[in-house]
Automatic annotation (TrEMBL):
Originating species: Rhododendron griersonianum
Name this protein carries in UniProt: coproporphyrinogen oxidase
Functional pathway: Porphyrin-containing compound metabolism; protoporphyrin-IX biosynthesis; protoporphyrinogen-IX from coproporphyrinogen-III (O2 route): step 1/1
Keyword check for Phosphoprotein: no
Entry EC no(s): 1.3.3.3
InterPro entries: Coprogen_oxidase_aer, Coprogen_oxidase_aer_sf, Coprogen_oxidase_CS
High-level lineage: Eukaryota, Viridiplantae, Streptophyta, Embryophyta, Tracheophyta
Length: 405
């Protein structure tokens, strides 16, 4: 007997997530699109401690929240940045800071993706919630539910300011240091989306691109300022159409290859490793690209790379939906789709770092749980028949394939 679980309306989260792939401290050489080579020594001890302590900081409700409670707004502001963040203090030309340009990029990407989703649906419209926080920051959450094509589509942007514990900095200080810095300010901005179509032959898509900074504590002048980019785009079908998966991965590879030929194989493997459901011994889907803690190249190059990846979402995904959204299907096909969505729920509630971070830091709950589909189901000890189309999908989730060369 198949049971169906219905989840409440939810919205995307854009809190920083931590990867399951570790990056050791090393000197990495990376070529930018401008033809120059940047060599940078990475210190990941600090970032690892930062992520660990962020998760520990508010595991108990007895602590004061690390992120202020949001309040609803009636209109979209031009920016969610604090006034002091609009321009880069290090820039002589007066150009916008990386924070400002990243926010502009994710808001434009949100508009572009939402317009494409509505056009494909042919009638459904996004519900929009705008929210802010008293100390700065805020976001725009959009969801389209029960449309002609989409069961649920969420696209969210957010800008977040907060404080992280001083222990994150102690890990980077020399042994025996007597300094006891105060809380460390952090900034995070991102776009996150999960798109669940109704037709079981049309795949689910997830993408998330984010930028993270920490500032030096006020009582520790000269402490290192850290920044990094993270994100990725991944495809989760219930049925494999080889040409669809090849198209999707070829677009990801094309975006990566514009910047560094090593990016796609590196981030494709990272994606396969990250979206692994340990208790099932299988991946959530058929992958794509994923990266985190990325600062081993020039900052401007990585901003351009994140922008290119976000701009690649529509051409990678919408042509697939156009081909599959109207295909006839049976109750058996729909039941298999719902079982695979059960796997989606398992990964996101048990393993996803962004979900964990949001739940433990007092984030916006409707945003945190967006990745849960409107409906999912579980069947006791379900095993697809060997050689069936369902079995082929499961086999590809257990044994990741190389879809493009």
């Amino acid at each position: 007997m198949l049971t169906t679980t219905t989840f409440p309306i939810t919205y995307p989260a854009t809190f920083p997530s931590s990867s399951t792939t570790s990056i050791t401290s090393a000197t990495t050489t990376c070529s930018s699109t401008l033809g120059r080579t940047t060599t940078r020594t990475l210190t990941t001890t600090l970032r690892t401690a930062t992520r660990t302590n962020l998760l520990r900081l508010h595991a108990s409700q007895s602590s004061s929240p690390m992120i202020e409670k949001e309040r609803p707004e009636t209109n979209r502001p031009l920016t969610f940045l604090r006034e002091s963040d609009g321009q880069s203090p290090a820039s002589d030309s007066g150009n916008n800071s990386v924070r400002a340009r990243f926010e502009a990029m994710i808001r434009e990407a949100q508009d572009t993706v939402c317009a494409a989703i509505e056009a494909v649906d042919g009638g459904g419209k996004f519900k929009e919630d705008v929210w802010s926080r008293p100390g700065g920051g805020g976001g725009i959450s959009r969801v389209l539910q029960d449309g002609a094509v989409w069961e649920k589509a969420g696209v969210n942007v957010s800008v977040v300011y907060g404080l992280m514990p001083p222990e994150a900095y102690r890990a980077a200080k020399p042994a025996g240091s007597e300094e006891k810095p105060g809380p460390v300010p952090f900034f995070a901005a991102g776009i996150s989306s999960v798109l669940h179509p109704k037709n079981p032959f049309a795949p689910t898509l997830h993408f998330n691109y984010r930028y993270f900074e920490t500032d030096a504590p006020k009582d520790t002048p000269g402490a290192p300022r850290q920044w990094w980019f993270g994100g990725g785009t991944d495809l989760t079908p219930a049925y494999i159409f080889e040409e669809d998966v090849q198209h999707f991965h070829s677009v990801q590879k094309g975006a990566c290859d514009k910047f560094d030929s090593s990016f796609y194989p590196r981030f494709k493997k990272w994606c396969d490793d990250y979206f692994y459901i340990k208790h099932r011994g299988e991946r959530r889907g058929l992958g794509g690209i994923f990266f985190d803690d990325l600062n081993d190249c020039d900052q401007e190059m990585l901003l351009s790379f994140a922008t290119e990846c976000a701009n690649s979402v529509v051409p990678a995904y919408i042509p697939i939906i156009e081909k599959r959204k109207d295909l006839p299907f049976t109750d058996q096909h729909k039941a298999w789709q719902q079982l695979r969505r059960g796997r989606y729920v398992e990964f996101n509630l048990v393993y996803d770092r962004g979900t964990t971070f949001g739940l433990k830091t007092g984030g916006r709950i409707e945003s945190i749980l967006v990745s849960l589909p409107l409906t999912a189901r579980w069947e006791y000890d379900h095993k697809p028949e060997e050689g069936s189309e369902e079995w082929k999908l499961l086999d590809a989730c257990i044994n990741p394939r190389e879809w493009v060369q």
